[in-house]
Amino acid sequence: MPFGLLKYGLRQQYPAQHQFTPSKKLKKHYDVVIIGAGGHGTSIAYNLAKYHGITDIAIIDKSYLGGGNTARNTAVIRSNYLTAEGVAFYRESVRLYQGLSNEFDFNIMMENRGQLTLAHSDAAIRSFRWRAEVNQHLGVRSELVDRKTIRELVPNLRLSEDARYPVLAGLWHKDGATARHDAVVWGYARGACQRGVELHQLTEAQGIEIEQGRAVGVRTNRGRISCGAVVQAVAGASSMVAKMAGLQLPIQSFPLQAMVTQPYKPLLDPHVSSPHVHVYVHQTSRGEFVIGGGSDPYPLYHSRATLDQKEKLAGSVLELFPFLAQARVLRQWAGTTDMTPDYSPIMGLSAVKNYFLDAGWGTWGFKATPICGKTMAELIATGRVPKLIQPFSLERFYRFEQVNEAGATAASH
Amino acid sequence: MKQLRCPLNGLRNISEFIYGGEYHDVPDYRSCSSRDWSEHVFFAETKAGWVIEWWCHLPTSYWFLVERNTVSDEIRRSFPSSDLYQERVDFSRALAREKQSE
């Protein structure tokens, strides 16, 4: 139980605190180099330092801490997936999220809002029933709910029969939540840096050095680093970084666009998503409506906005919440999503020894941050692949053992 | 709206098209290994820069190739697949052969 808040309340002075490693020279060698200072990279470093006693770590990033897809996701946490492998993995992540503020002694603003997915067709109801059964079997709170329950959960949702796609039923996932995504990466980075991990921003990986099939170093814009192991955790650039290690991945990278409205009084508790009209929306504690779900129709390494996608997003959200017609859009952005053919991540070993993959996080990376860091750290420290992530190895594509979660994502692809 | 030149139908709105994946050499299904085939099916280069890719004009179901930049989103040219493929794949004959060998 953290007493940080109590201590803070009793203080007379509030001096500025340095949370992260101050800028300093790169050492010549580290035990582990992590490429990518986002949620995943810092979570791996934190878990290695705190639970495995490995602290000689450099986290390098060509930009700044949490400036990539960690800052660009829509901060949704849920575990209502379809496959047993997926549900078990994300369930553990949701559990870890629940205790993360205590773990950090730092508020990640976790909110157990619950998540409601809408069915607009009989086929969707069938798949929701299936998901609810799988979820309940594995201890995840999901249930099929009727229109009356939906009305109680979200009184402002348009349930009219005259809608283009009337809402028929819903999948209510009580474990669904949101958290402040920046706070998650700050909490991990702070905890890692306190234990001796070095954070090096503006340090771009430019090449991976491989000797006799083993990763031995990383070339950066600030010089060469030799190391015992390399981890890539670079959502949005996975294929490019893997290529430096001579690896090809089953990934295509698409922009995903989102936007935020002006703030309103609190009027929407759960996170609401509709795979049918391709939109998901929730209201933040600041009152803004976060609207996402517009995957671009073709791959691109660019975070530009397009009017086509913004129009589509706006049109879709008005189907569900017509009162938002008056809302002004405050911000819009895009992030590059590394899509795998089965909508599951690629984690674990690669063909290069001591080169570890944390990739293929498409639109499901933020919710997996805690469990990804925990399991990847265990793999790096022990050399054994934890059972929870064995199904997500790159090798699954050669064995035709995909973990198909295409039906359990809300974004449009 | 962004537009794309279809070799069959001319310049059309990009919403009339669907992206069909990177162009790469197809391994010979008669002789390649299962590993090669899974790479052909699932893996991609996902290069940053100029690439050649498959597109389809949906209303006419016409598949063709486009040279596009995956960073700047510029389109340099589009051309019919007959520029690259002259040989017709005869699936019926291949199937019959397989049946024979069984």
Q: Tell me how many strands of chain B there are.
A: 6
The H-level CATH homologous superfamily of chain B, spelled out, is Folate-binding superfamily
- Number of helical regions of chain A: 11
Gyration radius of chain A, in Å = 21 Å
Strand order of the largest sheet of chain B: 3-4-5-6
What radius of gyration of chain B results from the CA coordinates?
A: 16 Å
Could you state the order of secondary-structure elements of chain A as H and E? HEHEHEHHEHEHEEHEEEEHEEEEHEEEH
Cα-to-Cα separation, first versus last residue of chain A: 43 Å
How would you characterize the largest beta sheet of chain A? 8 strands, mixed
The tally of domains of chain B stands at 1
Shape of chain A: globular
Work out the strand percent of chain A. Answer: 15-25%
Helix content of chain B: 10-25%
Output the helix-strand order of chain B: EEEHEEEH
Mean pLDDT of chain A: 94
Q: Uncertain regions of chain B: pLDDT < 50 for 5+ in a row? A: none
CATH topology of chain B: Folate-binding fold
CATH architecture of the largest domain in chain A: 3-Layer(bba) Sandwich
- CATH class of chain B, anyone? Alpha Beta
Which CATH C-level class of the largest domain in chain A is it? Answer: Alpha Beta
The overall pLDDT of chain B, averaged over residues, is: 92
